[in-house]
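Entry:
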Amino acid sequence: MPLAERRDGWERFAEAHPPGSLLAPPSWYGYKIAPRRMTFWRGDSDGPSSRLEYRYIANAWPLDRLAG
């Protein structure tokens, strides 16, 4: 699906469902997750792996590239 078509679809959805109009059923429950650090690790059998780490600091998620 082309990017413009996806964006149009999301705009139509947002217009039809303003914030606060979609509520979870009363039988649903869950947990709120508030991560402080996320590391994404991609292995490579032919070379070093790649690690990207985001740490939550002062309302921002700076990126660090870690050794593989």
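The radius of gyration is 19 Å.
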